[in-house]
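hey so u asked for the seq, here:
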Amino acid sequence: MGTTTPPRTLAEALRARGDESLAGLLRARPDLLSPVPNDITQLATRAGTRASVVRALEHLDRFALQTAEALAVAPDPAPYDTLLALLTGDGQDDGDGRDDAGAAITAALPAALTTLREQALVWGEDTGLHLVRTARELLSPSPQHPSPTGLGPTVAEATAGMSPGRLQEILTTAGLPATHDPVSAVTALAGLFTDRARMAELLDTAPVEALAVLDRLVWGPPYGEVTPNPAPPVQWLRDRGLLLPVSTRTVVLPREAALHLRAGRAHRTPEPVPPALVTAAERDPQAVDRAAAGQGFTALSTVEELLKLWNNGGPAILRAGGLSVRELKRAAVALDVPEPVAAFWIELAYAAGLLAPDGETDERYAPTPASDDWLDLPAQDRWTHLATAWLAATRTAGLIGGQDAKGRALSTLGPDLDRSAAPEVRRRVLALFASLPPGTAPDPQSLLARLRWERPLRTPVPSGGGGATTPTTPQSGSDPTTTPSDLRSRIALWTVNDAEQLGITGRGALSSQARALLDEGPDAAAALLAPLIPEPLDHVLLQADLTAVAPGPLERPLADTLSVLADIESKGGATVYRFTPGSVRRALDAGRAATDLHAFLATHSRTPVPQPLSYLIDDVARRHGHLRIGAASAYVRCDDEAVLNEILADKRSATLRLRRLAPTVLAAQADPGSLLDGLREMGYAPAAESADGDVLITRAGARRTPPRTPPVPVPEGPPVPDTTLLSAAVRAIRAGDTAARAVRRDPDARDTATAGSLPRTTPAETLATVQAAAMTGSAVWIGYVNADGAASQRVIAPVKVEGGFVTAYDHTADEVRTYPLHRITGVADLPDTQAP
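ran it, structure tokens below
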């Protein structure tokens, strides 16, 4: 193809591209690489398939999509000026009172057209632009699928089944010369509608009611229902072809007439420029960083508390997978957060690999071994781990509580929560935050408007319009920025909320540590966050009312021990712990002695240990283990008979069904755990013992899952190939295309083949040709049949020929291979202009 010859097909247009342009196409549409096309023709065919075109259209911004929609209603091919006119209008007043922003459209159109060309949705020169056939079918109007532009079919399409007599009646009524040729009649009617002067004269004679009908149809949907005996205004429009019949009860406003009423515009509101982000507030960047750091530290504390809550084994897994509503409520109460927030933290811990099913027969959720490693990290590194997991996760906690396609409820940690668009939406939302000056909080609705422009819904139903009596297609006139019903908008709103909870943003603005995380990685973010996180403390303040106040975050060993010895009463800047008989007994059950507890408090308290607290510890310790419980089903053992008599006499012990076996032993039909709980509720402090009579020590954190990896995000379509793969794929496609289009250099040879067929030569000719190619270092075209009998064409550069084998560099596979000579069907020289 010459450099000045316009391409005749998409394949020719792709063939004329450079390697970098082809690589850009494969990068933008990675589905075209699965598998790597054999040649340019196969690449062009695959780029025109319905699934691939739909995916490409869904990734266009609003103006690029509007450009494609305009091409879908333009003639094929369409000159550049025609396309521009469809977007800007013909400059006439359409009564809409709107500035069409023609200068902005003129400036933005070349970039939009370049995007469509790069993605192989449009090909051809500016003198004849072609929208690929599949895209035209998807975006063209039909009664079942109205055009996004709101335009109907052309006069020729709408009158395709109309009788010649009816056409003559319309021409006569419209004041046009009669003709017996249907083609000429259609041309004449279309010419009337496209002639602004004659069309204006015709509409000047129209009744006011008829013009009102046109006003309801002009911006779509263009279809309307009519009664068997239509009203006079509708009949006036039908008689002049301004409404053409689609069926016995449906009429349509033809495209040419609608474009006249629209002043030539395909879209009511072209959007060549993305909506600007609106600033909601401007804050001190340092205050934003501090607020985000504080919220991030709260996030760490919440996840740590969740891990501690499920330390000894979490809730059971539902048969259908996930967490029950009751268990979610229980976790929300324990974390002191609403249920949707609790679901978010649980899903985040799961995405970060800190929680997982334990794999047992009675399967439950439990912390993973990786959670212990995570807890040992500095606070800033723990935060970057959570933030990185959140950015990449496709599981979407905001869906919890809704229903799937089959009407089943979506549960926390259950199936069907993956949404492949979530990571891309999250990063794009944060990128828009980052585009604003530090400390600037954007308005969420302006964020949604910008996201809708960058990735609009495919083929939205146009707003406005109406039918002659009743429109046949539902309308959608609502503002997309205020009714975020589509998934991407909901994910964007969830992202704004989740980012604030996680400490990505502070007071509505992006923090410096989050900017570093997005631009430079976790290490840079951790370095900025570290100075903003308070240093862990090694002390508490004991008070006389049996409480301890932690004036800040505590070192992990101190926090772990104190959480066993006391109950958390309140959280915030300072955490308040309360000592109770139950909490002290819990510490004694964990193997601590009273002397250990006294020493621990004396070491870590900046205030003297209050006397009531010392008395409480001594009193519980004195009674702890006085009773011994083991398995009979269960038994109670005590050296003091009076205590056992007291238990038997207590009416509250009736449910335990106790009976005396010996002066110091009582037997029960309850299990040991229930017996322990029952006696503790009666005010005693029993201790469990083993079969050998030793006191059983219960320690927290004893249950862990086997090693588990975090859930793998579900990608949105094929992954974007890296540079190496793209380069190899382009070389393979070029080589395959060269082989498929190769011709014999000698046109008089015996087995001359047409382009694309396997070459055929005798064994002697094959051997001589490959030997000559090895000596000269030239490339040849061969036909090859592998061991499975599959034939293929290859372009090779022979390196060595010996022992019945040819060692050559295969341009198609981009590697050196060895071929048996007896499997080569034939060989042909490549013309110099086709050699790779």
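The CA atoms of residues 322 and 414 lie 4 Å apart. Confidence is low (pLDDT under 50) at residues 93-98, 459-484, 744-756.
lmk if thats what u needed
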